């Protein structure tokens, strides 16, 4: 089975497949299928075929979805590129991808050379190329938060395993109305669109970049009942004036947190707004690893179970399982894993240990074997010989009601090697002082874990996918 086989064979071709949240343009499943067939034919006439790669450079839109599916139907591999990257970064990624074609929206057409393709030129029916499940579906370039981006190659079989697993874990139903606001150039953004097309729901696309007031409007106007947000997006929506009351009155029944760890306070705030929040843990390379149901989170259980088809462990430096409750590195294997890095075999060898993929995160397991995320392995601060988890420090600082966001990093120190430094952002409508943050740290943290430096910032640097750019925080702290 491949992604093309699984899509656009609806039982109800007249059902709405895609809706633009702003313009209210609507494509039925039959119309979407017709567009995709024609575009696949146009791409084939332009020389795109099985085994080729096609770069897609565009913001969220109905046309993005059609172009993505058309590339897949030709048997080529789609390479979505971050639309917020600089011209130099895009040129580098395109060079690494070595595509036969670059498809760019009008807003991004001048970034890299693009060959014009009349995407409506082909006549007659066009059937998907018959590629096996082992064939590459997409190449997703990692966000670059931990170094130069690498192209993660994901097969059709891996992606289908992830889609079917999500449908089961989060009870995705035929006819669900899903708000697509996560950037579609990300692995999660594309997968979530495909999931709801596969389940024959309606995908309501928030065009362009994420905008919290517009997302809340879309939830109301289109009676959205399902969304997937990174924590930053959820917090931005909650911070819209009147958001809690509007969410309580809305049809939104499920919000799945993805892309970063779910903070208990955020989970509580979403629950107070009447939203059942679940959690999905994984990475671009690993795919989905663990999930936590809304029922578990409502009971205060913030640890996840293994995603269908996946197995995880928490191990020490020698590869042995750590005792219950102790922190170690998360490793996994199973159906959703990627196939490797594009033209970079050395990089993939470095990510495996004793046959298990090293995700790069720290975690713990409880008595029931449930996984709790503790932070990035390479973010650990070593101060005076002690290992300090920045996630733990951030959690303590966020317990202060006036702190809306926090980022903790290690900065060089001649005596200690590194000291803990914290950048904090005031919660909306709050005045925040360094003394107040310091008091929260003293109350909840051992002395060696407390920030030696605290700065109040207007905002934290985030990637296009909403993830904290910890290296930028560390760089700014080092300069100051």
Topology of this structure?
Layout: H1 3-6, E1 16-20, E2 26-28, H2 29-45, E3 53-57, H3 62-73, E4 77-80, H4 87-97, E5 101-104, E6 136-141, E7 151-155, H5 156-169, E8 177-180, H6 187-198, E9 202-205, H7 212-221, E10 226-229, H8 231-238, H9 243-248, E11 254-257, H10 264-272, E12 277-283, E13 287-292, H11 294-298, E14 305-306, E15 310-315, E16 328-334, E17 340-341, H12 345-349, E18 352-353, E19 356-365, E20 371-376, E21 381-383, E22 386-388, H13 390-398, E23 403-413, E24 417-426, H14 434-444, E25 453-456, H15 470-479
Parallel strand pairs: 1-9, 3-4, 3-5, 8-9, 8-10, 10-11, 11-12, 24-25
Antiparallel strand pairs: 1-2, 6-7, 7-17, 12-13, 13-14, 15-16, 16-19, 18-19, 19-20, 21-22, 23-24
Helix pairs in contact: 2-3, 5-6, 7-8
